[in-house]
Amino acid sequence: MIRSMTGYGRQEAAWKDGTLVVExxxxxxxxxxxxxRIPKSxxxxxxACKEAVQRHCHRxxxxxxxxxxGARQGRKQITLDRDLAVQYCGALRDLKKQLRLSGRxxxxxxxxxxxxxxxxxxxxxxxxxxxxxxxRLVEAALKELVLMREREGQALSLAILGHxxxxxxxxxxxxxxxxRLVEAAxxxxxARVEGLLQGPAVDEARLHQEIALLADRSDVTEExxxxxxxxxxxxxxxxxxxxxxxxxxxxxxxxxxxxxxLGSKANDAGIASTVVQMKxxxxxxxxxxxxxx
Length: 293
Hints:
The model has no long low-confidence stretch (mean pLDDT about 85). By secondary structure, the chain is of the alpha+beta class. The strands form 2 sheets. It has a 4-stranded mixed beta sheet. A two-stranded antiparallel sheet has the order 5-6. It has helices at about 45-55, 80-100, 105-110, 130-195, 205-220, 220-240, 245-265, 270-290, and strands spanning about 5-15, 20-25, 30-35, 60-70, 75-80, 115-120. The termini are close together. The chain has 3 domains: about 5-70 and about 125-150, Ribosomal Protein S5, domain 2 (2-Layer Sandwich), CATH 3.30.230; about 75-120, no CATH class; about 150-290, no CATH class. The longest helix has about 70 residues, at about 130-195. It comes from Nitrospira tepida. Keywords: Endonuclease, Hydrolase, Nuclease. GO terms for molecular function: hydrolase activity; RNA endonuclease activity. This is Protein YicC.
């Protein structure tokens, strides 16, 4: 089953006197790009979190957010950089003396220096029970996200199949009109040959050259066959599971080339209109394929 790259999963559970909340969002991206926003108390969990995402997702931008709401925070610890304070005071005294400044150097002066005092949680290692709970919630949220991606992928598949049918109908229309193109090309060739024959002499080499050129320009059989082959490959790939987005994108480029060649070879207003319709449908498919994993 194909997957979209857009999804959302959320899980929460009680933790002490609060809750631990896990939210995971994903959007389309060329590769797998994981961003984690995790509290300091769970900082050691980041690597395991990314590994869990990699097991479930292969492409897309995935944002994982873990939040602890209402729970008692760990005890804080204040650290004073005494050596820096001494250097700071010495530097200020020297500056005051050098510039003959007035004023007192006291504790209020040092209190405004952020680098002197840092506040952190007391060391003690991560809470194993909290880590275990976080791992369980992330796995559950990822399953929700994958389920949403699969549902949207199924919807994308149905829409794309409808577009492929529209291109196949347009291709059949061009195939039906192709013999008329050959007849029209033959009429033009006949008129040109008659014009050459009215001259004093016929340049047979030039005559053969004109015939080959017109035949090549008006024959769209090869393009129609290749377009049909690409459509079949596209359907077969769409029925597969796994990472298929890049393959589908490549097949779209190939179909676009064949349709462009059809338009340039078939010098016919009716076929030109059909080619424009095919290009419009291909663009719709391209927009949808950009969101397939």
